[in-house]
Write a structure and sequence with these properties.
Elements: H1 4-9, H2 11-15, E1 18-24, H3 36-42, E2 45-51, H4 62-71, H5 78-81, H6 84-91, H7 100-103, E3 110-117, H8 121-140, H9 147-166, H10 178-192, E4 197-201, H11 204-213, E5 219-221, H12 228-237, E6 243-247, E7 262-265, H13 272-279, E8 291-298, H14 302-320
Parallel strand pairs: 1-2, 3-8, 4-6, 4-7, 5-6, 7-8
Helix pairs in contact: 8-9
């Protein structure tokens, strides 16, 4: 029993063994076949291999192929992957799929709401100025900048735009944040009902602003947090600990937060699977009442394009994973 990190760190020890079985949990860790963990696992001698994951495809079908390459090297090629129906017939005998609803038939409802917000004038002006300057800068450098550097500059611009939509203060502006104002209004209602609330954001700097600005005591958890179990235990069992601020990355796996009545996603991520993993921290076995999920989304912004991208990525799962004609051995 080990972690992916320990496997790579102590690879000489593991590679000296002949294993009867290797089981991967959170197998999406090896979705990149060129990643160190993927390359290390491929070198281990083993009689039987099993991979467990809730997100076999997060961004593109090649991630599913990477997992299959660990299980059965050569089962499917890149050319075959380009024909989804044929690929599905080939891989279906080796995939056993169980949805959360099938396994936990007594799971309460999950109610999802998208809250579409409009920026006030000062925040909108700052956002549009940033976007205009970024575009002009990219156009000016178009002929002189190599493609990899230009790609990084585009990612940098997208990051700044997303931060501005959360709170302009993240990049040095004093303009107000419509998301923070909406959050304050929602929390006032939720706290009056004594509901337990998890607030997710990709940006820990935004979470820290929220912690400073809201008039409620709250728990905090991100990738740097050491006493995760204590924080989870407090949220689950302390009637006074009703509010938990958490980074989307920290909330992706391994936490049981079934006490939550409300989940708030302050900013979208590039694929829906990561959001679904975070939501599943609350909507899981042990939950008795419905869980309400609210997504804060700003109209006429890059966040609308991110929703479109999420939909495209979900289509890959529809093509390769959903409605498989399963054959069980």
């Amino acid at each position: 029993l080990t972690s992916y990190g320990t496997l790579m760190q102590d690879f000489d020890l593991f590679s000296a063994q002949d294993f009867e079985m290797i089981i991967l949990d959170e197998a999406q860790t090896i979705k990149n076949e060129r990643a160190k963990a993927s390359l290390a696992l491929a070198k281990l001698d083993c009689s039987f291999r099993l991979a467990l994951t809730g997100t076999p495809i997060e961004n593109h079908p090649g991630e599913l192929k990477a997992i299959l390459d660990f299980l059965l090297p050569g089962l499917i090629t890149e050319e075959e992957l380009a024909k989804p129906e044929a690929a599905k017939r080939k891989i279906s005998p080796f995939i056993l799929r169980r949805t959360k609803e099938e396994v936990l038939d007594d799971l309460p409802p999950l109610i999802e709401k998208n809250l579409y917000l409009s920026m006030e004038e000062e925040q909108r002006t700052f956002y549009e100025t940033l976007l205009k300057r970024g575009r002009e800068g990219l156009i000016e450098k178009e002929s002189s900048t190599d493609s990899s550097k230009k790609r990084m500059e585009i990612f940098e611009l997208l990051l700044r735009l997303r931060q501005t939509l959360c709170h302009p203060l993240l990049i040095g502006s004093e303009a107000p944040s419509i998301k923070l104002e909406q959050l304050k209004r929602d929390l006032q209602e939720m706290m009056s009902k004594n509901e337990k609330v998890i607030i997710f954001s990709q940006f820990t700097s935004f979470l820290k602003i929220i912690k400073r600005e809201i008039p409620y005591s709250c728990l905090y958890l991100d990738g740097e947090t050491k006493d995760r179990e204590c924080i989870v235990d407090a949220f689950q069992n302390d009637p006074e600990a009703n509010l938990l601020l958490m980074s989307l990355k920290a909330g992706g796996t391994g936490l049981h937060l079934s006490a939550a009545d409300q989940v708030i996603l302050l900013d979208p991520w590039w694929n829906e699977a990561v959001e679904a993993q975070a939501i599943s921290r609350a909507h899981r076995m042990g939950r008795q009442r419905a869980v309400v999920v609210r997504r804060y989304l700003i109209l006429d912004s890059v966040e609308m394009r991110m929703l479109e991208l999420q939909e495209k990525k979900l289509q890959f799962q529809e093509l390769f994973i959903n409605d498989l004609d399963l054959i069980f051995y």
